[in-house]
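Sequence in, structure out. Go.
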Amino acid sequence: MSPSPAKPIHLAYLFDPLCGWCYGAAPNLARLRARSDVEMELVPTGLFTGSGARSMTRDFADYAWDNDRRIFRLTGQVFSAAYHDQVLGSIGRPFDSGPAILALMAVRRTEPQREFEALSTLQKARYEDGRDTTSLDGVRSILAAQGFKAAAAALDHQPGHIAELAQSAISRGRALMAGVGAQGVPTLLILEDANATRIDTSTLISDLPRLLAIPD
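Output:
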């Protein structure tokens, strides 16, 4: 009798679409997701929504750019001149991840298997192409142009359902963060039954082989 296959490791990735460190973690996150013994779910925390949202100011733009250059040195992830000029340079524009979370929930409702792809699409649009991901018009345009036409339509035709999904997902993310005492994102958790265990997420940036103590 052949042995039963090992139970996959279930991970929850807590993130915010406007978090530069989450973008920096993307390459190692993709490598981790490619493992056959790992299942991962995206859990937005709404870090930059509600009271966490703000308007872009010159001081905040300078602070973000300093962090972005550090992330680039550690990960090689691109923070382009277009991003610097068109995103950080748009003083007064809302810094609010709510629209991007709604876009991801629209993808979850229409093509859930493409949710990680959609997050990558939004991150690249912002950090590489300098596109606006803080307005519904901006994220809808990005989704439609990148082949997420059903999700783009859902933002228009099912706004109530999408908003409910977003609120539920954010509530789950915040509850998970509180449960493990996490203060920010990215945060990576192992979920097993009713228990959540936080992983040293610095490994997502710098040391993938040590992540989960599972050798490549």
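Check: The beta strands are 9-15, 38-44, 54-55, 94-95, 187-192, 195-198. The chain has a mean pLDDT of 94.
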